[in-house]
Amino acid sequence: MNTKPITPAEASAALGDVEQAGNRMKAIIAARSSRLLLLWGIIWCVGFCCTQFRPEIAGRTWIVLDVIGVLASLALGPWAPCSAIKDPVSRRIGVSWLVFLVYGIVWVALLDPRVGSRVLGHPLSYGFRICAFCVIACMFGYTVMGVWLRSRILLWTGIGVSAATVLGLVLLPAYFFLLLAIGGGGALVVAGLIMRKVRC
Amino acid sequence: MAEIDPIIHTPARLRVMAALVALPPRSQVDFRTLGKTLELTDGNLGSHLATLEEAGYIRVEKSFVNRKPRTDVSLTARGRARFEEHVEALRAICGI
What we know:
- The complex is a heterodimer of chains A (200) and B (96).
- Chain A is 82% helix and 1% strand.
- Chain A is mostly helical and 200 residues long.
- In chain A, helix 3 packs antiparallel against helix 5, helix 5 (126-149) packs antiparallel against helix 6 (152-171) and helix 6 (152-171) runs antiparallel to helix 7.
- Chain B has 96 residues and is of the alpha+beta class.
- The A-B interface holds A 1-2, 6-8, 11-12, 14-15, 17-26, 28-29, 81-82, 84-89 and B 4, 6, 9, 11, 14-16, 18-24, 26-30, 32-33, 37-38, 65-66, 72, 87, 90-91, 93-96.
């Protein structure tokens, strides 16, 4: 063990080393996200150039590009099993992006009047679509909160009410608002009572 | 008053601890990445990690990812506290 007293010059040099090593590690952490920015930057360039110059194939091109982007993000992102740094926050960010992707697809389907016509054979009214969108947007918040707070109750309330809203819209449009009142409102009340009991 | 920790004060170990403290809480870094970041050879890094692990300042976990061996290093709460105390002592010497 070193018992020699440390001089201010040695202490200052040691503090410089501490700062340098910390900065290097922070640069490694930042570099992990840079790959995703590069990937999605290229995808956007290709996708929007296609939309600008070949609009007739833009829809299919975006689907292919998005599938490639999602798969590459899963493999290259900081949440990948082979990532140099493993941290719980990255995993939750990754799951939150996946949740956003799934909800994004549902939102687009709800807001695009053509989807209702193709799936159900008749267009869904504007009021139904906007109402379902608002409910599912709120449930996206519950689902993401469930991921970040590690609360299964919030997570499953978000997923369950979202799924019930879509199913109700498609299968029981005549009782849609009643379903939201009982199924949606009821689910929130039950979740609140359970959380009050288990205090999670 | 904060004291200098002789285990941490060795230059290489000080850099290892500083790099681990820069990670988000409860994070792990791959052995190779840590060595590359700090420009330490595998042997050198391995021996310093063994000393820090013995002191309870870091945790070393071995696993397999895609059938390849992987060693992850993380900081313990004790290690973080001792490092912060050590840095405070260095600042006191410098008069900061």
